[in-house]
Design goal:
Blueprint lengths: L1 H22 L5 H21 L7 H7 L5 H10 L3 H35 L5 H17 L8 H14 L9 H21 L6
Helix pairs in contact: 1-2, 1-4, 5-6, 5-8, 6-7, 7-8
Protein name: Vacuolar protein sorting-associated protein 28 homolog
Subcellular location: Endosome
Keywords: Endosome, Protein transport, Transport
Length: 196
C-alpha cells in the first residue's frame, strides 16, 4: 500500500513540476504533451487500483501537504494536457469565427442581389442591412472603425428616417450598391489569410 502511495505522490509531484515547466516555457509543447499524457495514463491506472484505499485524491494531497494545485487540476479535473485543452478551445473559436464570416458573406451577397433585382423599398432593404450590420458587429476580428460597419450604420440611419413604403431613388440604390460592393471588398481584404 505504501509503495502505491509513494507512486501516487511521485506522479502528482512530477505533474506539478511539469505544469510549472510548461508555463515557464522551459519545455516545448510537444515534449510537455507527451510527458503529460504518460503521467495522466499512469495516474488513471494507479487511481483505479487505489480507489478503495484513496477515495479522494484531493484529500490525499491535503493529508500529505502536497500543495500541488496545477497537478490536481490536470490529473483530476481536466484529465488532458493543457495543449489539448487549448487546441480544442482554439478550434471552437475558429469554427465560430468561420460561421460568422460565412454569415457576413451571405448577408453582403443577399443585400447586393436584392438591389440588382430592383428591391428598393425601405421595408425590403432595411432588414437586409440590419442583418448585415449585426453580423459584422459580431465578428471580433474587425476593428470598430471598419468601413463596412460605418457605412451600414449610416444607411440604416438614413432608411430609419424614411417610411416603410418609400423607395430608394435610382441614384440612392446605385450608391448603396457601390457602398456594399466596396465594403465587401474591404471585408474580404480584412480577413486573415488561411494558415496565419
Amino acid at each position: 500500500m505504501y509503495e502505491n502511495f509513494a507512486e501516487l505522490y511521485a506522479i502528482i509531484k512530477a505533474t506539478e513540476k511539469l505544469e510549472k515547466a510548461y508555463v515557464r516555457d522551459i519545455i516545448s509543447s510537444s515534449e510537455y504533451e507527451t510527458e503529460c499524457q504518460k503521467l495522466i495514463a499512469h495516474f488513471k491506472t494507479l487511481a483505479s487500483t487505489l480507489k478503495d484505499t484513496v477515495p479522494s485524491i484531493e484529500r490525499f494531497a491535503d493529508t500529505y501537504k502536497m500543495d500541488c494545485p496545477a497537478a490536481i487540476n490536470r490529473l483530476v479535473t481536466s484529465g488532458v494536457p493543457a495543449t489539448v485543452e487549448h487546441r480544442a478551445a482554439a478550434a471552437t473559436s475558429a469554427t465560430t469565427s468561420a460561421a460568422i464570416v460565412a454569415e457576413c458573406v451571405q448577408n453582403f451577397i443577399t443585400a447586393m442581389d436584392s438591389l440588382k433585382l430592383n428591391m428598393v423599398a425601405v421595408d425590403q432593404v432595411y432588414p437586409l442591412l440590419s442583418d448585415l450590420s449585426a453580423s459584422l458587429n459580431r465578428l471580433g476580428i474587425l476593428p470598430p472603425d471598419f468601413e463596412g460597419k460605418i457605412k451600414m450604420k449610416e444607411w440604416i440611419s438614413r432608411l430609419a428616417r424614411m417610411g416603410a413604403a418609400d423607395e430608394l431613388t435610382e441614384q440612392q440604390a446605385r450608391q448603396l450598391h457601390f457602398d456594399l460592393e466596396s465594403s465587401y471588398n474591404s471585408f474580404m481584404a480584412a480577413l486573415p489569410n488561411a494558415g496565419t
